[in-house]
Amino acid sequence: MSGHYWIFRSSPSGGSSGLSRTWAGFLRDWDRSLRAGNYPQTTRYNYLLAAAQLGRYLGEHSPDPDAEDAADDPCPVTRAHVEAFQAWMIDTRSASTALNKHKGLQQFFKWLLVDEQAIDRSPMERVRQPKTPRKLIPVVCDEDTGKLLDACKGKGFANLRDEALIRLYCNTRCSAVRSRQPPRCLARLHVSCRVNRASSRAIGPAARRRAVLMECPDAEATVRAPSPSASPRR
To answer: This protein's superkingdom (predicted)?
Structure first.
């Protein structure tokens, strides 16, 4: 059952409930065609969900007086029906969700037009894709970076390692934006880690080799191995 059209029943929308027999029949046939084309299950699910939601919208939410025929059969669906559905998706969900439905409906009506030859023209021909707003990811400011570095203060191996990594990541950020001068918190880091007998037991040679820090213009670290005289006695 998981590879069949009725994977659709696992959705909160309730599978084929709310759809006419004609809509459900077309979706079942389309799912069979998608499975024959070896489309991934996730892709089939998203495609079928978009078409089923359009059918339910036309029957339950569409303000168009002529939506009754389209709610019974997908063939009479018009461009106005699809545009109203996209606008409803943007209002009730998001622009990115509406874009996902747009792509799914393009495939559905293409299948009706080319494979089934049930329609003479796709209602998606001149329907524009909804524009999705570009979300900018906030960049950590120098003050917050300084707080992170303050939290790493200490002479232990973990403190020195974490501080060096934070400075390295910050330097990478500066290189990405082509900053001429690095932030004040990116002063050149020189680490001298003296390992005594107690820390030698906790940090073995293999761990020290893995802890070699990458070199970059604004973040350097030198980890000094313990002298032979500092080796723990057995």
So the answer is: Bacteria
